[in-house]
Design goal:
The complex is a heterodimer of chains A (about 500) and B (about 290). Chain A has about 500 residues and is an alpha+beta fold. Among the domains of chain A are: about 170 residues, no CATH class; about 110 residues, Immunoglobulin-like (Sandwich). Helices cover about 40% and strands about 20% of the residues of chain A. Chain A is built from 17 helices and 16 strands. In chain A, strands 7, 8, 9, 11, 12 and 14 form a six-stranded antiparallel β-sheet that branches. With about 290 residues, chain B is mainly α. Chain B is built from eleven helices and five strands; from the N terminus they run E-E-E-H-E-E-H-H-H-H-H-H-H-H-H-H. Chain B is elongated. The chains are: A alpha+beta (about 500), B mainly alpha (about 290). At the A-B interface, helix 1, strand 1 and strand 8 of A face strand 3 and helix 1 of B.
Amino acid sequence: MSHIERQRQLQQEEAGEHLFANRVRVYPKSVTGPVRRFKWAVLIGCLGLYYLLPWLRWERGVKQPNQAVLLDISRERFYFFNLEFWPQDIYYLTGLLIMGAVALFLVTSLAGRVWCGYTCPQTVWTDLFMWVERLIEGDRNERMKRDAAPLTLNSAARKAAKHILWLGIAFWTGGAWIMYYVDAPTVTVQFWTGVASTEVYFFTFLFTATTYLLAGWAREQVCTYMCPWPRFQSAMLDEHSLTVTYQGWRGEPRTRGKRAANAVPAGDCVDCGACVTVCPTGIDIRDGIQLECINCGLCVDACNHVMERTGRPAGLITWDTLADQAAKAAGTHTPFRLLRARTVIYLSALVLAAVVMVVALALRPGIGLSVQHDRAPLFVRLADGNLRNGYTIKIINKAHVPVTFELTTQGLFGAILTEADEGLGPAATLGLPVKADEVGTFRVYVTGQPTTLADGTQPIDFSLRNTVSGEQTVYRSLFMGPNTEGKR
Amino acid sequence: MPTKIEKDSISGHMTTGHEWDGLKELNQPLPKWWVYILYATMVWSAVYFVLYPSVPWFNTYFRGVLGYSTRDAVNADVAAVAKQRAVHMDRIKAMSYADIRKDPQLVAIAQTAGRIAFAENCQPCHGAGGGGNPGYPALAAGNWIWGGTLDDIQKTLTFGIRSAHENARQGPMPRFGVDAMLKPAEIQAVAEYVMTLYGTPVAGKDTKAGAALFVENCAVCHGPNAEGNRELGAPRLASRAHLYGSDLPSVIAQINNPRLGVMPAWNVRLDEGTIKALTLYVHGMGGGE
């Protein structure tokens, strides 16, 4: 086949396909029912927590922030109620992320994408924005009619009002984000008096813009095209996971209107399309499990209303497993299996991570010492023949009061310590003052005559004692000298 | 490149032709907004191309409408920093060491400026951190030949040692062997005596003769107890740390034909503020007095 022939063939075969798809606008219809009520409750809980948590006060003492949750980047501290984290504690964040990921796996393997359907910020804010839209522009049919008709003063005014309200919510969202990083009441005053930092304005407007765009405009496009989670959820789901399911064995064949009464065999589905019109991602749940389904269950509420009105049993669309559906189609029933290899492994990993985290947090030391040997010179020989090594010593004082720390060494006979910058010593024990809530840095010289220097080094232990709390810690370092005595 | 376009039997979409363990990837159409974003990035790059330096042209290049240059930006930054630094360096120059030390910010600036000047000018001979090298004193150890107070260090730095400057540190030592001032056996005896001064005597030797020769020839500069004399740059010999070595051959060589260290006068190369910063830095290396 020649190249040109092949090209023509490809073009012909592609003729039925478009490389780019127009967006199908989704006009979700409002719905009532237990699922919707639960979704409202989760939404109010999540948003309430997000918007109000920064305002919660927590007394910590003088010169300390009194915000319950504060990620103070400029001072490098993270406050969470009674806990205070330093940059050195960053691995707790790793633990938290591991727990978050495994918890997500566990929940998904049990009950499908409930994260997507109820608690994902994209879902929550989209839901809120849709509520605003409905409030101003009316429900599905009204909105579709207005959008199809030419723009009038009325519809333009409604659109403008909607966008203004959206922007207002987005701004509140962006502003609340900033309040997790700087003291909420302070930054609020600073923001409106124009004296807040450039970063505050930048990030407020950045998150205002992203909230407005993602929840107002992008909506289900984020879930379908941008988010990786729908793509790999299939690895966590199996035939025993609960998902929002259309019970095809009961619903098919679909019959509508007058035919329904006479049709034989007749399924319970009346093909009213209620499940499709309420779907926030605009899909048909009757097509089975699909990438776009966020498992919110609004179609369950919608269908149950119809089933009730038509005198059929509720639950044509419900939460069920693929295994149970297959069994029901065959006239039997498979009970839901809570304990499966998958869920047990996820649960064990979650419990393990949680235990490690709690134990690590409980045993977290309140004292911190780091000793760094000078790189150059490694050592110097003094006129009296002694060797001297220089070290940079960093001491963490997590207390909110100034503390003097006692520094001594073990392992080097007759070691004498001198602190250069503060002019402390020479002495066998140094008292090093560290300011409240700070890291003290000291230049310490250790002078001594090592008995053995096997390969030019010998171990030396620095012991640190908090003179207030009595807490102690030891840091092992090296004392260095010439490789062969007398060569230098 | 697939040889034939396949259609998926269930969805009706064409596949990409890629297959993994029997799973075939569908070639789904991209959303329109995605392709618009791609176009937007193209427009952005075209605008960027016009505004910023872009097209190379033999030994020059198109500078862009805005005329931006990273080199100019760096030069402007350097000039700004130099201006900013000058304020502090002038203060360091004008103030006494005692006053500088009262201002922690100024001390930090002096330490940084001194550290950089040391790395650029002093490190090749004196070693990183002032650890010294054979023949070049370990500044961190405090075995000063010309004095280790701030004023001593500043003077040494400014005028140098045995440099061409008229105020340079000058300290002669006679060439006892080469100029036949002492016989080889006498030099040997003095050297053996000197070694007893820092606790490494040569076994089985009587050092009385050497001691007598020391008093006669050496003590005038190095002192009767070999404690040295900083006015003359005569090192303390009763020390375990020697510039030119502590073993017998090294000591004999130094008496026979002395090596005399030279350091340039830095006032021709560094300004006074930098020399004072350097003085503070060297003094703070661990050997300052």
